[in-house]
Amino acid sequence: MSLFKPSLLTLAMVAASTSMYGYAAEAEDVATADESIEVLKVTGIRRSLKESQSLKMSSSSIVEAISAEDIGKLPDVSIAESLARLPGVSAQRLDGRANVISIRGMGPDFTTATLNGREQTSVNDNRGVEFDQYPSELLNRVVVYKTPDASVMAQAIGGTVDMQTISPLTHGEQTFAVGIRGELNDLGSLNSGSSDTGYRGSISYIDQFVDDTVGIAFGYARMQSPNQEERWQAWGYPNLDYDESNPFVLGGAKPFVRSSELERDGFLGVIEYAPNDFYISKLDLFYTKFTDDQRLRGIEIPGQWGADWGNTGVTATENEDGLVTKGVINDAAVVLRNDVNKRDAESLSVGWNNKFAINDNWLVTADIAYSKSERTDIGMESYSGTGRGNGNGAVDQLGFEYDGKGGYKFSHDLDYSDPNLMKLGGPFSWGDPLGPDSQDGFINKPEIEDELASAKLTAEYIFDDGAVRSVEFGVNYSEREKSKLDSGYYLTLKDYPDMQTVPEKYLLSPTSLEFFGMGDMLSYDSLAFYNDGNYTETNADTVDLSRATNSWLINEEVTTAFVKANLDTDLFDLPLTGNFGVQAVMTDQSSDGTVATVDGGEVIKTPRTASDSYTEWLPSLNLGLAVADGQMLRFAAARTLTRARMDKMNANVNFSYDANPSDGVNWTGGAGNTSLRPWLARQYDISYENYFSDQGYFAIAVFYKDLENFVYDQTSLFDFGSIFPEQPGNPIGVVTQPQNGEGGYVQGIEASFSMDFGMWADGLEGFGTVLSGSYNDSEVKETSDSEPTTLPGLSEKTFNATVYYENSGFEARVSSRYRSEFLGEVTAISLSRVNVNVKAETVVDAQIGYDFSESGIDALYGLSVLLQVNNLTNEPFTSYTGDDARFVRDYQNYGRNYMLGANYKF
Q: CA dihedral defined by 584, 585, 586, 592, rounded to 10 degrees?
């Protein structure tokens, strides 16, 4: 295999222009080499595919890559959507957009995201990065590393996603680029006051000064994106009349329409300095601000589970294969919901890298980095109905019929848009914060803050000859602190116990709920009503035990020492490259939490701090054998870790105390576990790659991950005596808490194929395709005797296909991605997260454009236009409970998003 090879020292120095870490540095080396030997100019998607293929071919690890087609132009609107087109990678949609990914069947808990090789903080409750936080216009390439090496500090069992910004010195020319796109959602404005149009724009500037020793790159991107949704949501499916001999029936439903406006601002700044051949310094900053404002309006309808308090029972008129498909909810009371979800999030990442060439053999790198994320949510519920509390007010006879997709159509008699009939107040007896039936709403206000600081010092000795090309060694130290403050308040009208007519100043036009047959509903600006002080708030953690133990703080201090040898030799007269090494990972972790119990109807709280430490050894091996020209056989083996979920590592404990127990156990409850160890796995990979042209290849890989452990909720013994030493009785209690249980395995095979058809016939010039597919299988057990459980995020089958045409300035492509059903994480009550079964889906996107640089019109050189459609076939997101796919929990219809825009580069 013929590869461009500048001197080892030059390569190492150029690596600094991207990142201190091996992943990002290696990617920049390849890009630099490609630019040095490029002869024919290739643009657009073909340029992107060529660069991605070159990186995959030259990497010492098994990787997949996405490269920008031009400055400020990655192939897709979001990073996650682009990632989901790669072999072995799949995405889960949230509110119609892809935001988290799975790699080789391993969900977001098992993947790590880095920016220029540095681990990033996250805005969610755990570690997984939500990729829609990062504007694609500000990224130059994204690389997915499926196998680790010892120099990589941000390892994960699933894989590592490295987002990379541009190196201005490597770019080597002055560039100014702007882009603007208008956006339209075809569902229209579903909620009063919402919009179905938006825009996104970006501007980038790259330049070099002082004889190309100083380089700068600045970028700004803004997005204001509309999103509409019709969502069917079911409570569940019990047996009719709770009789197991009867068919299953709708337990209740909360269908609604959602209108969102997503605003995101992103800024990138890079300053690079290379005064000579011996020193390179690079400072980069990446900042994003993200606001998601959602209005949700719908009607919550108790079904079988509401019998005797929300209705007088359900009459079944038709059933099919054990499910009631048509019937009537008798004397039905409902609650109208005018809800608001709002998220404000900010993320900052700063890094400073310095690389020194001491002499021809020694290279020293010093890097410091800082990442911080903050998130504040408002999740507000506002209730209205015909009367306060159970059994009061007007009722309805609600007919219902299964629609064949998982939702139901209703028929009704009452006018749910009449403000004289539907009044503010709680129509059900859901809570008594200030008296009987006084819960008229609820507001959640969780806050997340996540900080990560790191420092790394490494050295590399480059040998003059021999099988070992160089040896790297070093140490990385990081400190991370993440906290969650989970505040929630019951809302009670100031006019309680009276119901209240919606004041005229807050009243909006009725919202249509015709998609499930309920006509129009009363609509009002509930957030403005709340902000004007019309509710009395009662702190939930004074009466709700689970709420009192849902706030926490986690600290981690991690020291990682490593040594790695890089190989460059021959085996049986065939070129052999790769590396082997080991990491020693020393971790100190601690948590501040709360011990809480209920006494006399009041929550009593006691602060608690817990800590633990551990050391893990992680060896790794990556080998690549060039078996023929353009053909590579790879083998990799490693022991990897993924740190436990941070929301499971808290020091919180909730308990009840029985002074006279019948079984001798005075204390029972639930707890977090600060002593949780990371998930660990031994993984093995073999792949064959055939590069038959610079824009065509075929690759097939098999992998096996032997999971040493897995985290489950288990019954454990807990020493309450250390917290309450004066309390009489047996100090050892029983709690349910997350523990490291038995492991299991994940195994699979994946294949990918890319071809530019122009290599076969001139008439096919410009046509091409990219195909990939994977098959995954897994089994994990809580104990050696327990039944296997489903691995969250794993789809057994995935398939991606892109067909494109690009010639003489014209460009068109259609892309689809399929993933079979999987266990996904979704939002539940009080913004908590639960796992549900997600149905298989195929998402199709398309775009067409023209680059006027190919038109011969000098005045239009640098201008390109683009029309793009996301979710072309309007694929819904569907989740269900149990084993019957008709027991749909969520059926979400997002519609199509159309974008029309232009880019200009000069």
A: 180
Phi, psi of 4 (to 5 degrees): -70, 130
Residue 142 β-bridge partners: 66, 163
Please state, for a pLDDT cut of 70, what percent of the chain lies above it.
Answer: 93
* Residues contacting 735, CB < 8 A, separation 6+: 653, 655, 667, 668, 669, 670, 671, 715, 716, 718
Q: From residue 452, how far is each of 120, 274, 285, 455 by CA, in Å?
A: 8, 28, 15, 10
pLDDT digits (tens, 9 = 90+) for 139-191: 898 999 999 999 988 889 999 999 999 999 999 999 999 999 999 999 999 99
Confidence of residue 43 (pLDDT cuts 50, 70, 90): low
Asked if residue 819 lies in contact with residue 837, where contact means CB atoms within 8 angstroms, the answer is no
Rg (CA), the chain: 29
CA distance 630 to 690: 6
Query: Residue 577 in contact with residue 60, Cβ under 8 Å?
Result: yes
Encoded amino acid at 804, one letter: Y
Measured between alpha carbons, how far is 643 from 560 in angstroms, rounded to an integer? 14
Q: What is the distance between the alpha carbons of residues 719 and 739, in angstroms, rounded to a whole number?
A: 16
Strands 653-657 and 574-599, bridge-based pairing: parallel
Task: Look up tokens 């809480």; give the residue.
Answer: 596
Taking a C-beta distance cutoff of 8 angstroms, is the pair 259, 190 a contact? Answer: yes
Token couple for 13: 């120095």
| 421-461 residue pLDDT tens | 999 999 999 999 999 999 999 999 999 999 999 999 999 99
Q: Are strands 197-209 and 175-185 parallel, antiparallel or unpaired?
A: antiparallel
Specify whether the CB–CB gap between 165 and 115 falls below 8 A: yes
Q: Which two tokens stand for residue 186?
A: 């075809």
Q: Are 683 and 160 in contact (CB under 8 A)?
A: no
